[in-house]
Design a protein that fits this description.
The structure is a homodimer. Chain A is an alpha/beta fold. In chain A, 35% of the residues lie in helices and 27% in strands. The first copy, chain A, is built from 13 helices and 20 strands. In chain A, strands 7, 9, 10, 11, 12, 13, 16, 17, 18 and 20 form a ten-stranded mixed sheet that branches. In chain A, strands 3-2-1-4-5-6 form a six-stranded parallel sheet, sandwiched between helices. A two-stranded parallel sheet of chain A has the order 8-14. In chain A, helix 7 crosses helix 8. The longest helix of chain A is centred in the N-terminal third of the chain and has 17 residues. The radius of gyration of chain A is 23 Å and the shape is elongated. Chain A starts with a strand and ends with a strand. The interface between A and B is large, with 51 and 51 residues. Strand 13 of chain A pairs antiparallel with strand 13 of chain B, so a sheet runs across the interface.
Chain lengths: 398, 398
């Protein structure tokens, strides 16, 4: 009998208990082993829950119970989630989590502690909710060198951008609606400022490169400044605006950043709308593959958490290949000034952007210019400085 | 040192040699083990190939060499591919393959022989080319009960349907062009008649249900009768026509079949164009996830073959969970007459189809009717019989 403890009985924690219970018969049959939810840690009591008798308020009960071999950390936030994770791993318990904040900040240390103690630290649910992406990157693309990952990694912002495009409402209106529907938090900063996407892209980037970059160290721009004029310009050129987490591994250096981008309708990411997520992976042998699905939500996210629990149980008698990450240093990061891509500039009036090679279109009294050739960040910034107060907005094209 | 033999030096076989060679350094680093391509079996010699010295013409050299522990069967066709696979497994060698014909026909027996001999039989590349789909179904969705799989599983037919829609050329024109480009075989029957898709959907269906249905036992309709009028009707209603491999597991019984279907533009499969494949999986906890990528091609398919080889090497000292399939019996198959979905009927002139609840549109002198409610095969056939010679075509809606 494998005993599991769940830390945090919020949305994902209760979903995890539900998946483990609802699909218990088929999961145990697949595993040929039985499991049991022994404890659920929460500050609150849940007298009406079917799991009421599992609730404990003191983490030490779990930590000191040698029967518990798997801990599912679903608390969110850095502390005490990090501290409890570390203690559990050091006590010889494997830990699974959906907590991108902890993985992106403390992943190097926690993976190392897991290795030292012969246990596992898995985090499939930390990126892309229910979408299988982390295990496929490790196992299924193992014959490849991954060269680029770009993804729509945040459902809230994708919902907002989709509504702006399809309903013609502006950012603040759609945000208010998303908050009413429960798709956005009362304090939406982590989503709309791109912080959540930054945490996720550094995790994916580390899986591809072995180097974990601090999410705070990467260029991160959210969606708060996107206007309906920008949306109109995108449409005019056959693009749709998406918040893209991007990482490219080139000559051993990593370009990783988050920003809104013009996505051509020929790119499969352009078709991912609403709260869905999608991750497009480029690798040297397979070319491009995409993983698509629900990027959040109680049961989808719990489905990924439980897949990790199953992985741990299935491989308990076997030393599974551990995740080995290093902290990325300055050396590992490519100079962002050198990042090249095609660009769109929107300028006031009919003044063209001044680029020798670009297509221009008049949109609502402005001129939108799309460059034909890739342009570096440095050159783009120089051009914007030159355009000074005539420049309305600038976008990277995916 | 792990010794590998490749059977067949055609497109996928030579791609497999290339992936194993090109990415040798990173793969060996990931595995912490070294490997070597010891033999390549082919009837031909390849004096100019870098692998010329590996070529052998007699399978027994491989079979009798106890140093060879992994055989990659890339020959295609049923015989001798099946016979060589069986012999290799019985000799204690693991086998990986991209051969959907062998897997869909002999999979139950070959998986059983692998189990009995403590080796593995893996076939990630048999469905969806380079797209990770088989391992994700087994590992990543292990916390779920899979209820439905529908996919665009054949790149040739998807290329033809995309060209018919986008260029307005008819089936025979586009087929001829596809043959010229190498996307379709001189004898295109296996593709255009849906046989290839049927083999793939029974493999996916078996992964979800444990029961392998003979591809010959399922209803299979290809794309040869699709007209530009049908394409116009699809467009009128906001659909796109795709050849869909479909399996649904309901009350322990399986509905599996292949047919062209009207796919609403809101369905993510509608966006998969050209030679790409996509597989949409519905499962009871995660909801819907989709896997997208190149469904064929030398290096993408080889990438999946080599992922299986890596899986085998990584788990060599460990008894990996085997695949257990049974042959599906009549009992396991749901009565296809009872399969319910929404329908489109196209009738000559302005005669409506006669359904009480349907939307109709006039298209090029015909009337296209779309039912609001699901309708069984039986009822659809009865209606078609009643319409007799006025009925032009009938489609299932996805």
């Amino acid at each position: 009998m494998i005993n599991i403890a769940i830390l945090g009985f919020g949305v994902v924690g209760s979903g995890t208990a539900e998946v483990l219970t609802e699909n218990k018969a088929i999961i145990e049959e697949r595993l040929g082993k039985e499991y049991n939810i022994k404890y659920i840690l929460d500050l609150r009591d849940f007298p009406d829950s079917p799991f009421a008798d599992k609730i404990v308020h003191d983490f030490n009960i779990i930590l000191n119970d040698s029967e518990v071999s798997i801990v599912a950390e679903m608390m969110g936030g850095s502390h005490p989630a990090y501290d409890f994770t570390k203690a559990a791993l050091m006590a010889g318990k494997s830990v699974v989590t959906s907590n991108k904040e902890v993985v992106s900040t403390f992943g190097v240390e926690l993976c190392a502690i897991a290795r030292e103690h012969g246990v596992r630290y898995l985090f499939e649910a930390s990126v892309g909710g229910g979408i299988p992406i982390i295990r496929p990157l490790i196992n299924d693309l193992s014959s490849n060198k991954v060269t680029k990952i770009c993804g729509i990694l945040n459902g809230t912002t994708n919902y907002i951008l989709t509504s702006m495009r399809d309903k013609g409402s502006d950012f603040s209106e759609v945000l208010a609606e998303a908050q009413k529907l429960g798709y956005a938090e009362a304090n939406p900063s982590a989503d709309v400022d791109g912080i959540d996407a930054a945490r996720k892209i550094v995790i994916l980037s580390a899986l591809a490169s072995g180097k974990l970059i601090s999410p705070k160290a990467i260029y991160t721009k959210g969606i708060t400044e996107i206007t309906l004029e920008d949306v109109a310009c995108a449409k005019e050129f056959g693009y749709t605006i998406k918040l893209i987490g991007y990482t490219e591994i080139k000559d051993g250096k990593v370009f990783a950043f988050v920003s809104p981008r013009m996505v051509p309708l020929s790119n499969p990411l352009s078709t991912i709308d609403g709260v869905f997520n999608g991750v497009l992976v480029s690798a040297n042998m397979v070319g491009e593959v995409m993983f698509y699905g629900p990027g959040a939500g109680k049961l989808p996210t719990a489905s990924a958490v439980v897949a990790d629990i199953i992985d741990i149980i299935a491989n308990m008698d076997f030393e599974a290949k551990p995740i080995v990450w290093e902290e990325a240093t300055e050396e590992d990061l490519a100079d962002f000034e050198g990042y090249e891509c095609r660009r769109m500039f929107v300028v006031e009036g009919d003044v063209p952007c001044g680029m020798p090679e670009c297509k221009t279109k008049a949109v609502n009294g402005m001129t939108a210019c799309v460059t034909d050739a890739p342009m570096s960040e440095k050159d783009a910034n120089a051009l914007l400085a030159k355009l000074s107060d005539k420049a309305v907005s600038a976008y990277r094209i995916l």
